[in-house]
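Re: that chain you flagged

S.,

Sorry for the slow reply, it's been a week of failed gels. I finally had a moment to sit down with the sequence you sent. For the record, here it is as I used it:
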Amino acid sequence: MATFDYNPITGQLDLVGSGGGTSYIDGDVEFHSDLPVTVGTPAVDSAFLVRKGSGIYFLSRKPAGIWVRELNNGNLDDWKYAGTFSDLYRDANFRIINDADTSKELAFSLSGISTGTTRTLTAPDASGRIQVEGQAIGDTTPAAGTFTTLAANNGTLTASAPALDISQTWNDSGTKFTAFKLNVTNIASNPAESTLADFQVDGVSIFSINDNGVGINGGTWATFSETFASAVLMGGVWYVNNGIAFNVAASRGPLSCVAQLGASQSIGWSSNNQPANANADLRFHREGAGILGQRNGTNAQEFRLYNTWTSASNYEALAVKWAANVVSIGPTAGGSGGTVRELHISGLPTSDVGTGILWNDGGTVKVGT
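Prediction finished late last night. Pasting the structure tokens below so you have them in one place:
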């Protein structure tokens, strides 16, 4: 008499004949390789139990469980796995091999995970390469590993979140540490425009470092800016011949540039917007302990102590200068607003204006009181 019995392969109740018994397992073997492959025996849809798993995971692994014969070609490929059994893979045995070259393998090690802890790796919804410790950060060309571009965009922020935040601890007095290093192979470039670093606000350069190492500026002398006293001033800072050069706009004074020339222990000024030792036309030198000298080769020098100064053409001053190999000390003035004042030399306190030698007193010279 036919009966209905549960089919563990399909998960349904099937009609079983009285002569066929109630078992849906047609046989069992120890390993997958032991499954019968004779054509026609057993028939298609026959089910066998494989008691033990065998083979290498992801390469030739044949798990234990129920196998069903779906084809009748006379080989082990006729059999398809019909059950799912939970497997735990030991990292020592787990390998992924390259499809084209099976000598290329990827192994995994879980030794760094804390005891009793399960870590989960979640794949992003994107294709790409896995970044590993020790590799350069950023996009790379395949295989070569050549660094191309590192781009960080934090988006629109309402709280501070630095795009780059690096910290180090230096703890060896005998070591010369370097926190940040950039090495450029400059085969060809535009020396006037190329920069090692360029800091911008709203797409405008406000601070940059030249690629030739001669200065810090905003790309050119005219593009480094600062705001001071509601006036926009242009300038820059350069390293020049063992010294430092500063460019200052004319709005800050009559000279456009000041250079500290470290090699000659002097401070020099020049109207040239990129000064060097050779073209600073006014220099103060340290002559020795407590000695300040103003010299510039064989060029005669002049020192002015101002009473008033409105502009380069409107002032009153005392001038100490050389001209035609003669040194002179006297008052000088410029413009309609300047007046040539009297010159008074006295050995007494300056409040005693009436004692000493007085020049330019109505065209006469007075001595005494």
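What I noticed first: The CA atoms of residues 61 and 351 lie 109 Å apart.

Talk soon,
D.
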